[in-house]
TrEMBL record:
The keyword Repeat applies. PROSITE patterns: TPR, TPR_REGION. SUPFAM superfamilies: TPR-like. Keywords: Repeat, TPR repeat. PANTHER family: CELLULOSE SYNTHASE OPERON PROTEIN C, TPR REPEAT-CONTAINING PROTEIN MJ0263. This is Putative TPR domain protein. TPR repeats lie at residues 78-111, 145-178, 179-212. It comes from Sulfurihydrogenibium azorense (strain DSM 15241 / OCM 825 / Az-Fu1).
Length: 329
């Protein structure tokens, strides 16, 4: 077998391991193939493609080197332009990405995912019209998750929130790990006043990316908006509970002083119903609030509420609260 033939044999084995997510073995085989014959564009293409699965900066640079070599060896290699464009997006080099993706579809207009990525780049720069032009090139076809996400963002930016939600649902159906689809679906739902559904979608985003503080802040804000909506509907206890949930997520969120009596009245109702745990949650939060200058006028009212609560609280719960208060103060 010639060196080229053996290199292609190793390439086929590497592709098999890549498809079975054994990336380390794929890299080993591709490196062996390159030692045998460094002039096969497909080997460089796959070496670059495999490198993209490790998202550190060094691996992305390795991917760029090999994909660039694949293009040098085969200037009409549309897939290599496409893959290199994706790497540039991961590196945040969007102008370079745009050049490669445009070249990819120029060579092979059937690479529909490239149009979706081009639309995303245009959306990032606020060019909704240009993004729509790219998406129109694959309209009438079954789109990928990025296609529906880009379309959803266009509807969202235009204030057409119901249509945006429909597109984000399609994204999630195709890719349940597409975190931004949950986030923008949540914001779309909130614009329609559907705060409970918005909160649920943000919870899903938090599960996927728990380190993103912004999701928690938005969730807290929507708990407040839900509370105001429930208060207008006469649901005082539910409103109070959502104010408390919002504050527990983001204590820096400021509750308007006019809502403090709502919390006090809700706690009193819960005490009457012997829902001591829920009442205690509100009372604990009120105790923190009335220490702040803007809520001082409600301090006396709160102290009366707390005395009433401690008086009716069962002995076991009273002891637990007493001990808890000692260690949390």
């Amino acid at each position: 077998m010639t060196s080229a033939g053996e290199a292609y044999h190793l390439l086929n084995k590497a592709i098999y391991h890549y498809e079975n997510e054994n990336f380390e073995m794929a890299i080993t085989l591709l490196d062996e193939a390159l030692l045998l014959n460094p002039d096969i564009p497909e080997v460089h293409f796959w070496r670059g493609k495999v490198a993209t699965h490790d998202l550190n900066q060094e691996s992305l640079e390795v991917a760029i080197v090999h994909l660039s070599e694949a293009i040098r060896l085969k200037p009409t290699y549309a897939e290599a332009y496409f893959e290199r464009g994706k790497v540039y997006i991961q590196k945040g080099e969007f102008e370079e990405a745009k050049k490669d993706l445009e070249e990819a579809v120029k060579i092979d207009p059937k690479i529909k995912e490239a149009y979706s990525l081009l639309a995303q780049i245009e959306l990032m720069h606020g060019n909704d019209q240009k993004a729509m032009e790219y998406l129109n090139k694959i309209s009438g076809q079954e789109g990928d998750d990025r296609y529906y996400y880009s379309l959803g963002k266009i509807f969202y930016n235009a204030g057409k929130y119901q249509q945006a939600i429909e597109q984000f649902n399609k994204v999630i159906e195709k890719n349940k790990y597409f975190v931004d689809a949950y986030v923008y679906k949540a914001h779309s739902l909130a614009h329609l006043g559907l705060y409970e559904d918005a909160i649920e979608n943000l919870k899903k985003a938090v599960i996927l990316v728990p380190e993103e503080i912004e999701y928690f802040l938005d969730m807290a804000k929507y708990h407040f908006e839900l509370a105001k909506k429930q208060l207008n509907e006469g649901k005082k206890i539910q409103a109070a509970e959502n104010f408390i949930k919002g504050l527990q997520i983001d204590y820096n969120l400021k509750i308007e002083p006019k809502y403090i009596p709502v919390l006090i009245e809700a706690a009193e109702e819960l005490i009457e119903k012997k829902n001591f745990k829920e009442a205690n949650d509100i009372i604990d939060q009120l105790e923190l609030l009335v220490k702040e200058p803007e809520y001082q006028e409600y301090k006396e009212q709160f102290e009366k509420l707390k005395k009433k609560f401690m008086k009716v609280l069962p002995l076991k719960d009273k002891v637990i609260k007493f001990i808890t208060d000692i260690y949390t103060k």
